[in-house]
Amino acid sequence: MAQNKEEDVNLGANKYRETQPLGTAAQTENKDYVEPPPAPLFEPGELSSWSFYRAGIAEFMATFLFLYITILTVMGLKRSDSLCSSVGIQGVAWAFGGMIFALVYCTAGISGGHINPAVTFGLFLARKLSLTRAVFYMVMQCLGAICGAGVVKGFMKGPYQRLGGGANVVNPGYTKGDGLGAEIIGTFVLVYTVFSATDAKRNARDSHVPILAPLPIGFAVFLVHLATIPITGTGINPARSLGAAIIFNNKQAWDDHWIFWVGPFIGAALAAVYHQIIIRAIPFKTKA
């Protein structure tokens, strides 16, 4: 019976999954490093695989839970009379970082634990997953974020609109250029950490790294939030920004919304290029 289950896993989840899922890339018996082949641009066989849809559902649920916990935390902070009587900015940063840590840990073996279109985009540029899967993940992440923010609004019908709905905007005292720069650098830090934490060569050398991969990723999210909450409320995740903007539906949120797509996608692309070309020098490696 156990053998049959193992065969089902090999034919399902492992046949059509990303080449290097977050946190699970090197959990194999063979620790010898082998450069994984690039994922095909289009993989039609995925569309007939249950593991493909299961991974999308996992991304939806993870992003739903992420928005639910984090937006509720933001609402609790803004509802308090002072930062000292609430979790404060540090608490909000911990909520975002801690949820990413927990959710990446829980979903890494199913979908890779992206929970962020910018992460998916960066991994796609590095050929870690197909375009088919990347688009599907992004759609499911955005739907999950909208539902998560919607549930929060259902709990706080009155205060939600008054307190800003957790939507990302460029705060007073900063320009749109400041906000864009903060989103680019913040997302670069996150996606660069993702690449480093899941690097196949490092995982082959240090077998403990896959188990610890969610920790540096969550910690990177925490640190970026500490730095950029005063500037933009910290997006670095287009799905998180879209979900809050749609449910809040305020003019200022929409005026600034482009920043929270353009910035993260530029940051993710830079991180992918930096890791693949500078850190790994993959284009310069000779084939045997």
TrEMBL record:
Would you tell me the Gene Ontology cellular component terms? membrane
Determine if Magnesium is one of this entry's keywords: no
Instruction: State the source organism's domain of life.
Output: Eukaryota
The record's subcellular locations are:
Membrane
Its topology with respect to the membrane? Multi-pass membrane protein
Q: What is its main location?
A: membrane
Q: Which residue ranges traverse the bilayer? A: 52-77, 89-114, 134-152, 211-231, 258-279
SUPFAM superfamilies from the UniProt entry: Aquaporin-like
Tagged with keyword Magnesium: no
Query: Per the similarity annotation, which family is this?
Result: Belongs to the MIP/aquaporin (TC 1.A.8) family. PIP (TC 1.A.8.11) subfamily.
PANTHER family tied to this protein: AQUAPORIN OR AQUAGLYCEROPORIN RELATED
What's the protein name?
Answer: Aquaporin pip-type ptom75
UniProt source species:
Nicotiana attenuata
